[in-house]
Design goal:
Layout: H1 14-23, H2 28-43, H3 85-88, E1 99-104, E2 107-113, H4 115-119, E3 123-126, H5 127-133, H6 135-141, H7 153-161, E4 164-170, E5 180-185, E6 192-193, E7 195-201, E8 206-214, E9 222-232, E10 237-245, E11 250-260, E12 265-272, E13 277-286, E14 292-301, E15 306-315, E16 321-330, E17 335-344, E18 352-361, E19 367-376, E20 382-391, H8 394-401, H9 407-423, H10 429-443
Parallel strand pairs: 1-5, 4-7, 5-8, 6-9, 7-9, 8-10, 9-11, 10-12, 11-13, 12-14, 13-15, 14-16, 15-17, 16-18, 17-19, 18-20
Antiparallel strand pairs: 1-2, 3-4
Helix pairs in contact: 1-2, 2-7, 5-6, 8-9, 9-10
Length: about 450
């Protein structure tokens, strides 16, 4: 199968969609889905600041016509030692994971899974391979139950141009003891990345997946429009962790949704550190009685970064619980936006939902907007929400400095303490260390 992409179809067009599908050797049903998503993209207006969801995020300078949709197809390496040095340095300890999947630009270049898990029916591979080897699963779940192309304009663009991604399937009753790790690395300037994560946990299954998205900072722009779908069947337990550390040339758009069936438990952590601008739609749909969703978020913006998180807790079934805690720090001229909604449907009696957003401002020129919302359609529920924005007190910094601690170290201690409530709720030591190192880097240590 040829993987050469011609210059003629480097931009976004129907012809480019058809060529990408042909290059990947896809079946007709998948090509038809791509073309349907492209049609949705074409008829959906580009978001503007007159739209409520985009009122605080300006994308008028988005270089949509200056990037190539599927650069880097056809790359492959034999092992982690052949990966780019910057990517290899972030992989962590092989003894602490059950499998590894690495993607560079538009291609998955290396995949590995514990043979014992493979024998027990676990599938951990790239989405293109999954569409070829387990088409029934992909056809049933890919952009049908969790995220659809109608979700937003960038989800539609993703549905047309996705070129790789992570496919994780855990059969009924199988427990994956060690985390699985997936890395998306962007290294081709002027490109667009459409990575897709599809996680399916059958009844009683248990798994942890850590997604890392990162790239160096270069002059040319890069657009990332990624989608994450989490399907948790009855009594499944899923922990999903996303670490976003794109370079400062990246425009990042993320659509993530978990669908929780009866008694399922899904814990998510979304860490946002990089990108020039990031807009993330993160949701949990509690469709089964007794489902539990924990949604944690951590973001740290500096320089002129703009990070916008829009969260949704949709209680569709009764006796379900959701708990959301997003914490952010910002400095310099950075701006962050948080908009959260708890929506309780009329049939969702005995809902228990909580939402909190806390922001710590480290400079007088930074700005944080926080908009928590409740929409209650049932009369026997407990729903609470809260939001705070506050500056670091200089007297706290002075107190620490009077004990011989430098100002950057003093600020780091305060920020560490602020974020610790989130970090300690994630029982994965490598993730905790990664986040704390990133905080130190942001502060300048």
């Amino acid at each position: 199968m040829s993987t050469r992409v011609t210059e003629r179809t480097q931009g976004f067009s129907r012809e480019a969609v058809e060529e990408l599908s042909a290059v990947l050797g896809e079946p007709s049903w998948l090509r038809e889905r791509r073309l349907a998503a492209w049609e949705i993209y074409e008829r959906t207006p580009m978001p503007s600041r007159t739209d409520e969801e985009w009122r605080r995020t300006d994308i008028r300078r988005l270089p949509i016509d200056a990037v190539r949709p599927y650069a880097g197809l056809g790359q492959r390496v034999q092992g982690p030692e052949e990966l780019p040095v910057e990517l290899a340095a972030t992989l962590g300890d092989a003894a602490l994971r059950s499998g590894l999947l690495t993607q560079i630009d538009g291609s998955v270049v290396y995949a590995q899974l514990d043979p014992d898990l493979a024998q027990r029916g676990v599938i951990f591979t790239d989405l293109t391979t999954a569409a070829r080897e387990v088409p029934d699963l992909v056809q049933r779940f890919f952009m049908t139950e969790a995220v659809t192309p109608e979700e937003n304009k960038f989800a539609a663009l993703h549905g047309a141009f996705w070129s790789s991604g992570t496919f994780l399937y855990v059969p009924k009753g199988v427990e994956v003891a060690l985390p699985l790790r997936s890395f998306v690395w962007g290294q081709t300037a002027g490109s667009a990345i459409f990575a897709h994560t599809l996680l399916i946990a059958e009844a009683g299954a248990s798994v942890v997946l850590i997604d890392t998205w990162a790239s160096p900072t270069v002059e040319e722009p890069l657009i990332a429009a990624n989608v994450v779908e989490i399907i948790a069947q009855e009594a499944a337990q899923v922990r999903y962790i996303q670490l976003q550390d794109w370079g400062r040339n990246v425009w990042n758009f993320t659509t993530q949704r978990g669908v929780l069936h009866q008694d399922a438990v899904v814990n998510t952590l979304n860490v946002s550190l990089g990108s020039r601008l990031s807009k993330a739609f993160i949701a949990s749909n509690l469709v089964g009685p007794g489902a539990t969703a924990e949604m944690l978020g951590l973001y740290f913006a500096d320089d002129s970064q703009h990070l916008d998180h829009q969260t949704r807790q949709w209680h569709i079934a009764p006796y379900a619980t959701s708990d959301l805690l997003y914490k952010g720090a910002l400095k310099d001229r950075a701006r962050t936006v948080f908009s959260g909604l708890i929506k309780v449907f009329p049939q969702a009696q005995r809902t228990d939902a909580y939402q909190a957003n806390r922001n710590l401002i480290l400079s007088s020129t930074a700005r944080a907007d926080t908009i928590p919302n409740l929409e209650i359609g049932a009369n026997d529920v407990r729903c609470t929400h809260g939001a705070t924005v506050g500056q670091v007190e200089e007297e706290y910094i002075f107190y620490l400095m009077s004990r011989g601690i430098s100002r950057p170290e003093a600020v780091k201690l305060i920020v560490d303490g602020f974020f610790d409530e989130v970090i300690e709720r994630v029982p994965v030591s490598e993730v905790q260390e990664t986040v704390r190192s990133a905080i130190a880097r942001k502060i300048g240590l």
